[in-house]
Amino acid sequence: MAYQTFQQEYLQIPVVTRAYTTACVLTTAAVQLELITPFQLYFNPDLILRNYQVWRLITNFLFFGPVGFNFLFNMIFLYRYCRMLEEGSFRGRTADFVFMFLFGGLLMTIFGTFVSLVFLGQAFTIMLVYVWSRRNPNVRMNFFGLLNFQAPFLPWVLMGFSLLLGNSIIVDLLGIAVGHVYFFLEDVFPNQPGGGRWLKTPFFLKMLFDTPEEDANYNPLPEERPGGFAWGEGQRLGG
């Protein structure tokens, strides 16, 4: 019974969020069990280009470090905000969501070569948080019960929290920068005088991921509860 309940809940997670978070958890489990090592996963342009270890282009986004507070913190935020984007502004637009993943991953890979980052998963999480926060500007947030602010400040609060933990903020800045580029090209520039839509999802992605009918039994996660935890709960203004 417990297994069936877990399976049902697991299958309720939208497909992109389910695939990405599962890949991250399985990668971390494989490292913990010493089936693989982080040295086989990290981003290294020389090994990619000279030794054709192309899997590093993907695996560096899947490893968030050993199991601990930092891993759990990143997994919670990755799951919550990835899911809310997929069930919110990307509802019924799976191909567009996948394209955002590809666009963001490509930019981070390019920028990562200049700032010598070896794992980009945390920056990718910050990108997702940034895009969600900009698309939900009227949501009020509460961080650990200490700070109250509106959603667009959330990525900067997370960056400050990383700084307090002694982590490098370059990762957070990279995620914010890439998230802003996507948000500007997708949400801002097309609505400007003389603007246009530069980001267009390839037709083959739409053929692969977009379906004409939606599941009537699908149960989306309420976007009005963005955090779901004490450090990220919020509510819409006027609600």
TrEMBL record:
It comes from the Eukaryota. The chain crosses the membrane at residues 57-79, 100-133, 153-185. The keyword Endoplasmic reticulum applies. GO terms for cellular component: endoplasmic reticulum membrane. It is found in: Endoplasmic reticulum membrane. It is a multi-pass membrane protein. Keywords: Endoplasmic reticulum, Membrane, Transmembrane, Transmembrane helix. GO terms for biological process: ERAD pathway. SUPFAM superfamilies: Rhomboid-like. Belongs to the derlin family. Functional component of endoplasmic reticulum-associated degradation (ERAD) for misfolded lumenal proteins. May act by forming a channel that allows the retrotranslocation of misfolded proteins into the cytosol where they are ubiquitinated and degraded by the proteasome. This is Derlin. It comes from Oncorhynchus mykiss. The gene is derl2.
